[in-house]
Amino acid sequence: MPPGTGDIHLTLCQVAPLTAAVIVTTPQKLAFIDVAKGVRMFSKLKVPCVAVVENMCYFDADEKRYYPFGKGSGTQVVQQFGIPNLFDLPIRTTLSSSGDTGIPEVVSDPQGDVAKIFQNLGVCVVQQCAKIRQQVSTAVSYDRSIRAIRVKVPDSDEEFFLHPATVRRNDRSAQSVDEWTGEQKVQYGDVPEDIEPEEIRPMGNYAVSITWPDGFSQIAPYDQLDMLERLVDVPLPATAAVASS
């Protein structure tokens, strides 16, 4: 699809039975804004994003690797949205000319570095689509009776509990962490200890979207939740909960 999140994209996603999406971006940090919109659009339409491709990432010259547009945009997408795979494509004249001649570089040079990147991307997409068809998503819900976020690991009896304030304080988005300097914008004391989520819903197969009382929408990847400090000696939960659906 072309860049954007307009009516054409929404219509195609609603009409065509899409199993998964691959996000293509460029290294500039400005591109992250459009990518974030795309990921959220796919999430609302329940189309999981399985990989990020960072185009025009680097070029090799004089036995060195150069990053003319900077580094980190693709990595930021992977980390913030919990997308599991990242692929970097170089700037190469052969890639450009292959588009003009109609002969892809994976055909003209099947053993080359670019061909290997596309082959690995293809294998990744096939494997992730197979997982999606079989996978039972991690279940995340909020239990009001014990004021804790419950995380149920799929295909096991394991579950653990998190303090809502801990989850909010560990948000990775640009609203909480300066994307240029890495400085923490939201300080520890800015988040009340008694904060409770208003809604938790799945975002693809790798994250949940948490809406807080102040209107802030936090994207929390499952792998990030797994790394947070867990509550211990949690009382037996009651049945009332704000569940992801």
Automatic annotation (TrEMBL):
<protein>
    <recommendedName>
        <fullName>Gamma-butyrobetaine hydroxylase-like N-terminal domain-containing protein</fullName>
    </recommendedName>
</protein>
<feature type="domain" description="Gamma-butyrobetaine hydroxylase-like N-terminal">
    <location>
        <begin position="155"/>
        <end position="218"/>
    </location>
</feature>
<dbReference type="InterPro" id="IPR038492">
    <property type="entry name" value="GBBH-like_N_sf"/>
</dbReference>
<dbReference type="Pfam" id="PF06155">
    <property type="entry name" value="GBBH-like_N"/>
</dbReference>
<dbReference type="InterPro" id="IPR044304">
    <property type="entry name" value="NUBPL-like"/>
</dbReference>
<dbReference type="GO" id="GO:0046872">
    <property type="term" value="F:metal ion binding"/>
</dbReference>
<dbReference type="GO" id="GO:0009570">
    <property type="term" value="C:chloroplast stroma"/>
</dbReference>
<keyword id="KW-0408">Iron</keyword>
<keyword id="KW-0547">Nucleotide-binding</keyword>
<dbReference type="InterPro" id="IPR010376">
    <property type="entry name" value="GBBH-like_N"/>
</dbReference>
<dbReference type="GO" id="GO:0016226">
    <property type="term" value="P:iron-sulfur cluster assembly"/>
</dbReference>
<dbReference type="InterPro" id="IPR033756">
    <property type="entry name" value="YlxH/NBP35"/>
</dbReference>
<keyword id="KW-0067">ATP-binding</keyword>
<dbReference type="GO" id="GO:0051539">
    <property type="term" value="F:4 iron, 4 sulfur cluster binding"/>
</dbReference>
<keyword id="KW-0479">Metal-binding</keyword>
<dbReference type="Pfam" id="PF10609">
    <property type="entry name" value="ParA"/>
</dbReference>
<dbReference type="GO" id="GO:0005524">
    <property type="term" value="F:ATP binding"/>
</dbReference>
<dbReference type="InterPro" id="IPR027417">
    <property type="entry name" value="P-loop_NTPase"/>
</dbReference>
